[in-house]
């Protein structure tokens, strides 16, 4: 396997020592997107929140300094679950942060459970995007907020690694897919290739 393809695989599912190292690289790459989420999530003390694909738990730890009720997270990697759990141990012990292994394709939560859901640079790896967006909509409360923070296809097409295992989307296609699954676009924020799509449940 080419080294580029190997690293791309770790971006999709960070596991093993290489995956742990890649997760910290992603933290650096995602810094402006973390700030976009923090700026637009608008947490309140009553909010129950979900992060899809928490990686090593850095953004959850940052958000846990704000007011919220409970912050849930799912990730497909056992190694990321262990790392993020260690990083957020104090909030987990208070039952304010709840991390589990899981997939967005089949969310283990009842309907209308979350006030807010967000994800950063994971959508390229969702196997059945319509099913995943439908699940996001199902567990989100009416008028709840979904933030999808990503890089658009024009930006990612310039990066060789994205030829391996990444599904790239234009913003128009993503918006159409989300709206077909019960989510209405309320705001778009763009910064140098990064795009923060803010949806509300219809």
Automatic annotation (TrEMBL):
GO biological process: methylation
A molecular-function term among this protein's GO annotations: S-adenosylmethionine-dependent methyltransferase activity
Listed name of the protein: Methyltransferase domain-containing protein
CDD domains listed in its UniProt record: AdoMet_MTases
Key words of the record: Methyltransferase, Transferase
Domain Methyltransferase type: 50-147
InterPro entries: Erg6_SMT_methyltransf, Methyltransf_11, SAM-dependent_MTases_sf
Any Pfam family the entry gives: Methyltransf_11
């Amino acid at each position: 396997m080419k080294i580029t393809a190997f690293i791309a695989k770790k971006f999709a599912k960070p596991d093993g020592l290489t995956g742990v190292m890649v997760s910290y690289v992603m933290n650096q790459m995602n810094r402006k997107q973390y700030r976009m989420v923090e700026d637009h999530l608008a947490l309140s003390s009553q909010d129950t929140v979900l992060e899809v694909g928490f990686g090593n738990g850095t953004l959850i730890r940052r958000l846990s300094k704000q007011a919220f009720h409970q912050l849930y997270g799912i990730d497909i990697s056992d190694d990321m679950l262990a790392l993020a759990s260690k990083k957020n141990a104090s909030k987990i012990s208070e039952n304010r942060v709840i991390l589990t292994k899981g997939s967005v394709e089949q969310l283990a939560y009842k309907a209308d459970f979350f006030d807010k859901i967000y994800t950063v640079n994971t959508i390229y790896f969702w196997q059945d995007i319509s099913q995943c967006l439908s699940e996001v909509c199902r567990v989100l409360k009416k008028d709840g907020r979904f933030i999808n923070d990503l890089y658009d296809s024009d930006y990612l097409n310039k990066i060789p690694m994205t030829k391996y295992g990444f599904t790239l989307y234009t913003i128009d296609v993503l918006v159409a897919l989300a709206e077909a699954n019960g989510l209405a676009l309320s705001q778009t924020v763009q910064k140098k290739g990064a795009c923060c799509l803010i949806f509300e449940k219809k």
